[in-house]
Amino acid sequence: MYAFPRMNVLEIPEEEEGKDSILCYATMYSRKVIANNVTTLLNQILQGYDRHLRPGFNMKRTTVFIDIFVRTMGPIADLTDTYSFNCYFRQMWTDSRLKFNGTQNKQLSLSMAMLDKIWKPDTYFWNGARSYTHTMTTSNRLVRLYPDGTVLYSSRLTIKGKCAMSMKRYPLDRQACRLVLGSYAFGSDELLYDWRVMGTDRGVQMDYDGIKDLPQFSMTGFQVFNSTNMTRDRNYSALEVRFYFDRHFGYFLMNFYVPCTLIVLLCWVAFWTNREATGDRVGMGITSVLTMVLIANDSKSDAPKVNFPTALDIYIWICYTTLLICMVEFTVVHYFTKFNTGDPEIQALEREKMRQIIRRIPKTAVMSSRRPYRKPLTTSPTLHHGITRRDGGRHSMYHRVRQVSVRKRFLAPQHSICSMEGNQVPTIEEFQQDSVGWRLYYWMMNNGRPTDPFGLAQNSISSVDRFSRIALPIYFVAVVIVYYNFYVNTPYDFTFDDEYIANPINPM
């Protein structure tokens, strides 16, 4: 009898020691016999086996069943139109040449060396960019052989595929990234691919804990297809799975949509500023436009460079247009309805100039010529409290852009207008062309009551401003509602350039 040497210094009864030695020897012997039997069995199976010929060659086509267990998803790169995921990729087919007696062995786990000696399908990913098999700490692959000749080939892969993303609704978009797989060389009349049914699932399973925290997207579902591709010179059997993603909107809401909306709101608040504050209004408008330019440039730093406007570009241009409307409104108010300047220093200078002009005009020269020399007013826009003027609101002596052409008429030719110092003052024609004098003249010709024709006592509000305070918010809200309905509520229709015959199966 074979006996093992004693390896323990503890005192063990000789009877127990002998039993353990016999049991250990029997186990080792049994394993050796089984290993020899498996080796002999595999050698018998492979005797006369040609790995270059598919199962059922020249008799029937071979069916390969596929199932994928997705462990993790991402990253999804819209700059390169790619996506990747980690999965267990399993293929199962039946090869009648590999049948064996399963009385003692219900299944055999084969080594990778054995895998190289049998036929396996030439499966590849039609839209694959770069996929690889994990090799740490060893090659993550396994092969199992069942008595009826069924082979299960499983491997852990990281698959990177091309994803034709449509960026027209970016960042309100929804993407469909697909994985298409099939045979590289065998046509559909030789090799047929089908999804493997696993309980209630068909083809694809998900580890939802591993895919719920994607950085840019949230996965909303998937759908599997059985397809027949027309490629090159024949039909090829193919399988397809489409993963559906919704882009996270919070980042874009906080960094682009809310700031742009607040800038438009700031420009709208400017309508409550008095029209005399030209500098404040123009400064606010220019600052708003420059800020929008900065936001627009920042929005393009991480976005894909496409030759069409995205949804974010459209919203920024909506805000640009609103700011342009505000600037045009400022210009209209300033040019056509502004009565005087809002600068206190300039107002004081104008008051002093008016006092000097009034002192130099004899009362008889103005009042006696009121009727005979009254000039008909062709346009008399209402300014403030019923006061009219002729020259479109360009009354300030600091805004003399256009000279008013008048007829050379004198109020009273028999009188001369002399200054208090005795010097000859400008003629009546120059007085009529003077901005302040021109206002005073027409006010005195149209109104004989003592009031403030120059509006210097208080700042005024334009009716255009009053209208814009209501019209601009209505316009902006209406445009945003149309924008939202178009980019969010419009149903998606995913189309692909290489579309083929596809039969959808149980969408998630």
In words, what does this structure look like?
- This is Cation transporter family protein.
- Residues 257-483 form the Neurotransmitter-gated ion-channel transmembrane domain.
- One of its GO terms (biological process) is chloride transport.
- It is found in: Postsynaptic cell membrane.
- The chain has 508 residues and is α+β, with helices and mostly antiparallel strands.
- It folds into three domains: 62-248, Neurotransmitter-gated ion-channel ligand-binding domain (Acetylcholine Binding Protein, Chain: A); 251-338 and 465-487, Methane Monooxygenase Hydroxylase, Chain G, domain 1 (Up-down Bundle), CATH 1.20.58; 360-401 and 419-461, no CATH class.
- Helix content is 34%, strand content 22%.
- The protein has eleven helices and 15 strands.
- The protein has helices at 14-46, 112-115, 208-211, 250-269, 278-299, 311-337, 344-360, 363-367, 428-433, 435-446, 463-487; strands at 62-77, 82-94, 108-110, 123-125, 132-133, 141-145, 150-162, 174-183, 191-195, 197-198, 201-202, 204-206, 217-231, 234-247, 501-505.
- Strands 1, 2, 3, 5, 6, 7, 9 and 12 form an eight-stranded mixed sheet that branches. It has a five-stranded antiparallel sheet with strand order 4-8-14-13-15, with no helix packed on it. A two-stranded antiparallel ribbon has the order 10-11.
- β13 (217-231) and β14 form a beta hairpin.
- It starts with 13 loop residues before the first helix and ends with a strand.
- The relative contact order is 0.10.
